[in-house]
Amino acid sequence: MPSATPTAAPAPAAVAPSHSAGAGPKRRGAFAPRRKVCRFCAEQIRDVDWKQFQLLRTFTTERGKILSSRVTGTCATHQRQLSRAIMRARHLALLPFVSN
Ligand SMILES: [Zn+2]
């Protein structure tokens, strides 16, 4: 008796959802990004003064470069004032253009 071979139907294997859905990229771990606030806004300093060059020094690298707002968290308004104040203080030799 020719037995009809059961044609293997394409069995739909239970496909596990391989692609990760939802969940946007949320960084977490050892170095959780802390919320940075503008120091001038926090201390309610409206105008950054070149005479406070000791304060301005904290916004420069040890080589004398101005730190970016991404590093310090300074807002755009104060970052502009800060850079002008630093450049003025440099011109008056209160801050170095470059320090070795
Ligand atoms: Zn600010």
Mean pLDDT: 83
Helical/strand content category: mainly alpha
CATH homologous superfamily label of the domain at 39-91: Ribosomal protein S18
Order of helices and strands: HHHH
Round the Cα radius of gyration to an integer and report it: 30 Å
The ligands bound in this entry are: zinc ion
Which descriptor suits the 3D outline? globular
- Estimate the helix proportion, in percent: 25-40%
Name of the top-level CATH class of the domain at 39-91: Few Secondary Structures
Number of helices: 4
Termini separation comes to 97 Å
Major sheet = none
Corresponding CATH architecture of the domain at 39-91: Irregular
CATH topology of the domain at 39-91: 30s Ribosomal Protein S18
E-strand count: 0
Strand content: under 5%
Uncertain spans, ≥5 residues at pLDDT below 50? none
